[in-house]
Design brief:
Blueprint lengths: L3 H13 L19 H8 L2 H4 L6 H5 L3 E2 L2 H5 L4 H7 L8 H23 L6 H26 L11 E4 L12 E3 H18 L12 H15 L2 H14 L24 E3 L16 E2 L1 H5 L7 H4 L1 E3 L5 E3 L1 E2 L2 E2 L8 E2 H14 L3 H12 L14 H15 L6 H8 L9 E5 L2 E5 L12 H7 L7
Antiparallel strand pairs: 1-5, 2-3, 4-10, 6-7, 8-9, 11-12
Helix pairs in contact: 1-7, 1-18, 2-8, 7-8, 8-9, 9-10, 10-11, 10-14, 11-14, 14-15, 14-16, 15-16
């Protein structure tokens, strides 16, 4: 049978060497969770719930490059293939890690329905809302890698398997792209009605995190009015930004983990052989786009001995190759600014953008735009510079490639060989891992 057990557990066992399904659970409590402590222990497992999102997008994007010697030093042929967009269906972790966390969320939801007795209704609401948030967040992240970029034309195309319970014997199939996004949004709106507006531990979801994620999703869908409304709702909870003038320019870790701008902490599932500081070089054109008084130039990057630059500042604290992709306020300002520009509100777009940039420069002079198109150009340029290795660039490329003015061809050069990924290329959708395909019979993505 094409089951969740087959799709998820088989893959996890291959990776971890576990011989027993229960070995995948963090402790015995998870087998039959029944108390609020049991349920929170599952949801508070940071390494699973907050560090399981795919890496494929950022690894495939244009923020960085490798030298030929760095590329050749990578022992894994699969990792080398990832860099040149020669996807062979070997990205097993990008599939199994998110679905493992989704399984955990479903265990909690099923326990609330069937087994967890005696919980106060208010607590049940928060636990349910948290599990729904995590499941939706991971569904969305999977869709950015394994489903086509959202548009009206692809709503009936294959999306991702939507696992909505923890039953290992339920059949799995790919829901349509339209149904995938509808499920994500429906569950997030329900989560927003259940969760408190704020959460003190930033690993736990909140209403503000729901607003921020909905703003991100609606932006990706091209629904700018909804994206603007949710970004505004998110910032209405707390709009305070860090002033980069107060950060150390020389510190190894200039941005603190769980800093004031972070609403929900999340990062990619593992450290990357491609994005590690010893290998990845910041794209030269990107680095040169920062002006001398732009503090991001010294906060985000550090100079290598060969004169190139690599990553230093991260919203996850110390950067070692795994990137922050959680919900943070700077992204919400950029979403708000972009949506206002696209909706013709030039003044509103520049107000949101300048509010952010005033905390990023020394001696900042507010930007001015005469038209909404000029405003949009400025916002997208600053979005590129602000959200460096934040898990959003791949989605931005996929959505902006549909607009000729903003479409770009990505290129990698290794020695005399050049590799290119053009707008609309089928490789903007990753192959479902071969090991999953061998046991599942799911419809594979096109090549």
């Amino acid at each position: 049978m094409r089951t969740y057990l087959t799709l998820l557990v088989f893959c996890c066992v291959l990776l971890s060497g576990c011989n027993d399904y229960l070995d995948l659970k963090p402790d015995k409590k998870m087998a039959i969770p029944s108390t609020s402590g049991d349920l929170w222990a599952i949801l508070d497992n940071y390494a699973i719930m907050n560090q399981s999102t795919p890496m494929a997008g950022e690894e495939s994007a244009d923020t960085y490059y490798l030298t030929e010697s760095s590329y050749n030093s990578i022992s894994s042929v699969n990792t080398r293939n990832n860099y040149i967009w020669a996807d062979q269906g070997e990205r097993i972790g990008d599939w199994s890690n998110p679905y493992r966390a989704i399984f955990y969320a479903n265990v909690v939801l099923d326990a609330l329905n069937d087994k967890a007795k005696g919980l106060a209704e208010d607590e049940k609401k928060v636990i349910r809302g948290s599990a729904l948030f995590f499941r939706s967040f991971l569904f969305y992240e999977l869709a950015q890698v394994f489903a086509k970029p959202y548009s009206e034309e692809v709503l009936s195309s294959p999306g991702i398997p939507l696992r909505l319970d923890s039953d290992p014997d339920a059949a799995s199939f790919r829901a349509s792209t339209g149904d995938t996004y509808a499920q994500i949004i429906s569950d997030l709106k329900l989560a927003g009605a259940l969760l408190p507006v704020t959460s003190a531990p930033k690993n736990r979801p909140s209403g503000a995190a729901v607003y921020g994620l909905l703003a991100r999703i609606y932006l990706n869908m091209g629904e700018y009015e909804n994206a603007s409304l949710y970004a505004d709702s998110c910032l209405s909870v707390n709009s305070a930004l860090m002033d980069y003038n107060s950060l150390s320019k020389t510190a190894t870790t200039p941005i603190a983990r769980f800093n004031d701008e972070v609403i929900l902490a999340s990062r990619s599932y593992d450290l990357s052989n491609l994005l590690g500081t010893s290998r990845c070089r910041v794209d030269t054109l990107l680095f040169n786009s920062y002006t001398a008084n732009d503090l991001r130039k010294v906060i985000f990057f550090k100079k290598n001995t060969d004169g190139s630059y690599t990553i230093k500042g991260s919203y996850d604290g110390a950067y070692n190759g795994g990137f922050f992709n959680g919900i943070a306020k700077d992204e919400q300002y950029l979403i708000l600014a972009e949506c206002k520009a696209r909706l013709g509100d030039t003044q509103g777009a520049m107000a949101a953008l300048n509010m952010l940039l005033s905390k990023r420069f020394t001696g900042f002079t507010p930007y001015v735009a005469a038209t909404s198109q000029q405003a949009l150009d400025l916002v997208l340029a600053e979005r590129r510079k602000e959200l460096v290795l934040r898990g959003t660039r791949w989605s931005d490329l996929r959505r902006l490639n549909k607009e000729p003015k903003y479409a770009v061809s990505l290129k990698r050069k290794l020695g005399s060989k050049e590799y290119e990924l053009v707008p609309g290329d089928k490789r903007y959708v990753m192959l479902i891992p071969t090991k999953v395909m061998n046991v599942s019979g799911l419809v594979q993505n096109e090549r």
